[in-house]
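Example record used in the benchmark description.
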Amino acid sequence: MKIVDAKVFVGGPGKNYVTLKLVTDQGIYGLGDATLNNRETLPATYLQDYLIPVLIGMDPRNSEDIWQYFYRGAYFRRGPITMAAIGAIDMALWDIKGKLANMPLYQLFGGKSRNGAMVYAHATGSDLPALVDSVSHYVDKGYKAVRVQCGIPGMPTASYAIPDSTSDSKHYITDFSGIRPQEEIWDTDRYLRYMPGALAELRERFGPQIRLLHDVHHRLLPREAAEFSKEVEPVKLFWLEDPTPAEDQNALQLLRQHSTVPIAIGEVFNSIWDCNKLIENELIDFIRVAATYAGGITPVKRIVDLAALHHVRTGFHGAPSHSPLCMAAHAHLNAWAPNFGIQEYLVLDTPECHALFPSDHRMDQGFMYVSDAPGLGVDFDETEAARYEYEPGSHPIVRLEDGTLWNY
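Model output (structure tokens):
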């Protein structure tokens, strides 16, 4: 069996999904996601110009060797562009493997460890009453876990993942449109004074059963993160996400010395080498890698196995930048992983997206249920894909009030 053709598609409803389709000489095809949010043309070009010409003629069943070929064979390794491209290939090879075996991927991993995987929604509000309304919306829909982000009184602009005061959306997604980044203004002191009390009010309002998560999005210095995490301990957060920038991994030692709040980190990590010491030293409680950014299913399974040895659970990234193909890979990993924790779920769940990526994966009462279709269990409609074109965009940037560039 050989790979005889490969195509890359860029575009989608509301997002520039980068979709790889590999075709074999037996007519079986596999699909993979290479979407790198707001830099989508880079992994697409890397695939088209450098990887696909070498991939043609290879045996798709040798997925391990192919992964090592593209990872070890590159003198300059890792990084989000390379790993997203390799991740798409690896995902597509697993899809082919599952179709050859006529089994869903979770069966190839070792079978199910659970029937459904708990997910968390994103509740947002420009102020606390609006956030309470947003949380209530998801609780009424059956969600057992909600990430909560709230506007800070006196903050010059809406902070991370917060709609402006004129929006009444319960499903707010940051606006990434336009090639020139939007700018947010951040005030750490205001955040530290306000957010612990807001989280405490949410806990009092919704009781002990709902799992509350909060994302700091790299905004605090190590001492500030330690102070904050210690202050919110009574809230019993399910996790505190990205309290400090991931580059300084020693900062987490300070948090561990001062607080027992569970820490979740890893959505910007691209390999096991970015997180192995954090896991081995048990400085985190949840690992947040994504199958696309971390190089595919093959390396993510290794990360999951390493994490299981050190009491670290999974909490895969699930922002709208991941296509339904990446989310399907997560669905199979979540069904299998003995150390599963939770799954982020903020996808563009629209008729247009379902038309482009038809599948039987489903959500119900805050749980994701994996399809039993062979492989990833997601198809791709090329006719639908022809309706969409690439639209450039950028992440916002953050400055302090004096103009200093800060961490997004």
